[in-house]
Structure formats: C-alpha cells, structure tokens
Amino acid sequence: MRAHPIRRTVLTCAATVTVTTLALALKPHTQPATAAPQAQTPNSTRSPSTSGGTTGTQSGKRTLTGDTVQTRYGPVQVEITVDGTKITAARAVRTPTGDRRSQDIASSSVPTLVQETLDAQSARIDTVSGATFTSEGYISSLQSALDQVHG
Questions:
Q1: Radius of gyration (C-alpha) of the chain in whole angstroms
Q2: Residue 90 resides in a domain
Q3: Which pTM value belongs to this model?
Q4: In this structure, what CATH number is given to the domain that contains residue 53?
Q5: 64 with 80: CB under 8 angstroms?
Q6: pLDDT above 70 covers what percent of the chain?
Q7: Which of 4-8, 9-13, 92-96 has the lowest mean pLDDT?
C-alpha cells in the first residue's frame, strides 16, 4: 500500500528540518583558543614588510598597530588603544578595497568585529557571517597588536 502524498511530504519536511538542525548544531560557533598568528589559513598570509608599531608609553594609554594581513580580497590591519592591558578602542586602519562588494562587506562587518573586540578584551572573537576572510584577517592583525601589549 502506498503512503499518502501529504504524509510523505510531512515526513520529508520533518527529516529535512532534523538533518539541518543536527548539521548546524555540529558547527563550532567560536574560534579555537590557539593564537591567531600561528594558526594562519591558506587564504591569509602576513606581509613581513608591514609589521605593526607602537606609540605612547608602556604603563599608560598606548596605541598599537597590528601587522597587515593579506586576505583573499585585500589587506586588513587593526589598530587598538590600550590603557594598561584594557582595550579602550579598536579600529581597522586597512580593509579590502579591491571591489565594491569587498568594501560593502568590510563596512558592515568591521563595526561588529570592533564591538566584539571591546567586549571580549581579546582576539577570541567570532567571525562575522559572510565576511570570513575579512574577519580572519582582522583577528590575526588584532592578535599581533595584542602581542605587543605583553612584550
């Protein structure tokens, strides 16, 4: 005896929802705890000639510039201001500008990355959906700036 078409449709929809839910539950929602500069992706490499810099004094408020990280869509570089060891400000001084879409992605994702940086007070932040390469470049450059805080 054949199953009723509506019953088949309901079972198919239920199976699809179940599989989708399981697939999303298995995806990690955070970056691994390893330091970003050592864990480079194949699509991002550091530019050795563009290392970061430091301005200010060691004990007070300082501005630190991370390394420029080359991503698939262009360079990303982060500058942070720290007071002691607390991050008081962050901004991307370089973002991908190769085409209009890359500019749009950067302009919408960087504010989220900056806010996450200030909230987390570290480079252990999530990538922004739809801006994976920009996010990974931002996190790598941020980590190189944070490395300057501690020595």
A1: 21
A2: yes
A3: 0.62
A4: 3.90.1010.20
A5: yes
A6: 72
A7: 4-8
